[in-house]
């Protein structure tokens, strides 16, 4: 009984932390939807939209690779270990040292990107070479957007510091500021008659500066300042660097798969890149609000348990993370598939975003939604490996997944166009998750204990999907009924005794009590 209560307490702690991140991220995602709605209205899904999304994709990918993806996941375990063994000041010195190295490396990379923007564009969107006007515009937008990585990488480092000190709110709110800035710049470009694509690209750069400035007061309140001791030869920097190199692939396999899809989509009909972008944005909602929130909250706990060699607690925390992730991801998958057309029509179907764009984007959404549970499970599994300071295994598996994605994409796009590319990303992500789970079993022994819960969640989600397909109502009504569908799923979860729903309610009640 005591062990069970301890497990519930640990799960509740994880849930409360995740709910803080999820709440802040939810605000950001809602703003993100408004942003995408305005971009769709002002920019549509034509050639200029493709040009902007390619230009934005490059620094955004680097953000996933070198910032939120590899840097945060490699930084947090090392920072926590130094903080616990050598004290907070030594850990702060490590953070300053990492920042200097980060700015130096990315500064050189940015300089090279500005010079070689044309070859870089050719690499990411080779299909654009057949349209010189779109190609030249994309090159210009790449030069404007790329320096964003300098600022957002520092934001990611701030996130690592604050998360390690159990502060999750400010880093989770930062993307919301980006959405606000892009909304302002999109509207300014549209109503002034200025190029919306150019205006948005400038907004990307400005948003990086705003997000970084927002973090500093919270860092200062936590006792950290950028002025203080540092060492370019800090051994912790070397350890983080060694961990980061493999994580470039392992932590951002989903983003790399999306980039591969972007490259292949540049050979398809105009608008294909935009269709995939808008569909991906909807998939990112449950993925960003819940899955990433849970893995972000779990990483410090997993790192501490691994450092204490407490593998029993480690496995329980990992299973709790995955169970809670799938409790949200599986019904979200059912919802996105069942409501694919109504969602796209209601959110984007206006202005320059015509009926053809609605139909094509809703098809892409179905292709991505099939892989949502796999996309969601990757982060907790990756966090488990990184907490054990094993970054090589996820990298190897990610490379295999990426190669398979390209192969499947090349095959499926011949017959299914952009839908085939979305489906290829989903298939390769499922393979990635399966391989990660098997590799973790070889590393720490049998670990997965949520099989029965998984079957119940899958059954409830399939029932939800059946109901969504059975009931035919206008798009606005279907979207307005989303809270009803959510209540239906929760009721089924209670009826078939899925434990996650009760533990979530218990954790929220305790949080409200505080």
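^ Assign residues to that structure.
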């Amino acid at each position: 009984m005591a062990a069970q209560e301890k497990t519930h307490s640990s799960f509740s702690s994880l849930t409360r932390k995740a709910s803080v991140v999820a709440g802040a991220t939810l605000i950001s995602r809602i703003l993100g939807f408004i942003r995408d709605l305005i971009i769709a209205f002002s920019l549509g899904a034509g050639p200029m939209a493709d040009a902007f999304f390619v230009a934005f994709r490059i620094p955004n990918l680097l953000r996933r690779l070198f910032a939120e993806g590899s840097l945060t996941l490699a930084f947090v375990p090392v920072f926590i270990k130094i903080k616990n063994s050598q004290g907070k000041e030594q850990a702060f010195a490590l953070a300053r040292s990492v920042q200097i190295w980060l700015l130096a490396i990315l500064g050189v990379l940015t300089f090279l990107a500005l010079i070689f923007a044309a070859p870089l564009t050719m690499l990411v969107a080779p299909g654009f070479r057949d349209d010189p006007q779109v190609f030249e515009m994309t090159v210009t937008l790449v030069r404007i957007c790329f320096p964003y990585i300098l600022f957002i990488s520092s934001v990611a480092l701030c996130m690592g510091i604050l998360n390690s000190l159990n502060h999750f709110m400010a880093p989770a709110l930062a993307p919301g500021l980006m959405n606000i800035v892009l909304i302002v710049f999109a509207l300014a470009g549209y109503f002034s008659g200025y190029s919306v694509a150019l205006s948005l690209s400038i907004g990307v750069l400005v948003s990086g500066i705003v997000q970084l400035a927002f973090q500093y007061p919270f860092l200062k309140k936590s006792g950290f300042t950028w002025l203080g001791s540092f060492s370019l030869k800090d051994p912790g920097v070397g350890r983080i660097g060694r961990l980061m190199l493999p994580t470039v692939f392992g932590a951002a396999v989903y983003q790399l798969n999306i980039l591969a899809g972007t490259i292949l989509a540049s050979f398809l009909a105009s608008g294909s890149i935009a269709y995939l972008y808008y569909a991906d944005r909807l998939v990112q909602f449950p993925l960003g609000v819940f899955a990433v929130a849970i893995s972000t909250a779990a990483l410090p706990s997993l790192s501490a348990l691994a450092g204490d060699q407490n593998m029993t607690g480690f496995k329980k925390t990992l299973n709790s993370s995955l169970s809670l992730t799938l409790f949200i991801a599986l019904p979200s998958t059912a919802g996105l598939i069942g409501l694919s057309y109504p969602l796209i029509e209601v959110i984007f179907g206006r202005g320059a975003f015509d009926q053809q764009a609605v139909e094509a984007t809703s098809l892409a959404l179905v292709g991505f939604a099939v892989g949502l549970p796999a996309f969601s499970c990757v982060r907790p599994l990756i966090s488990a490996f990184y907490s054990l300071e094993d970054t090589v295994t996820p990298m190897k598996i990610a490379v295999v997944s990426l190669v398979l994605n390209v192969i499947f994409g090349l095959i499926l796009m011949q017959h299914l166009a952009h839908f085939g590319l979305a489906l290829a990303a989903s298939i390769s992500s499922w393979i990635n998750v399966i391989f990660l789970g098997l590799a973790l079993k070889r590393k720490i022994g049998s670990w997965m204990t949520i099989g029965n819960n998984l079957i119940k969640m899958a059954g409830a989600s399939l029932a939800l999907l059946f109901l969504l397909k059975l009931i035919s109502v206008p798009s606005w009504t279907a979207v307005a009924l989303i809270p009803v569908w959510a209540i239906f799923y929760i009721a089924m979860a209670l009826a078939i005794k899925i434990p996650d729903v009760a533990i979530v309610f218990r954790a929220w009640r305790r949080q409200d009590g505080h």
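The CA atoms of residues 203 and 349 lie 24 Å apart.
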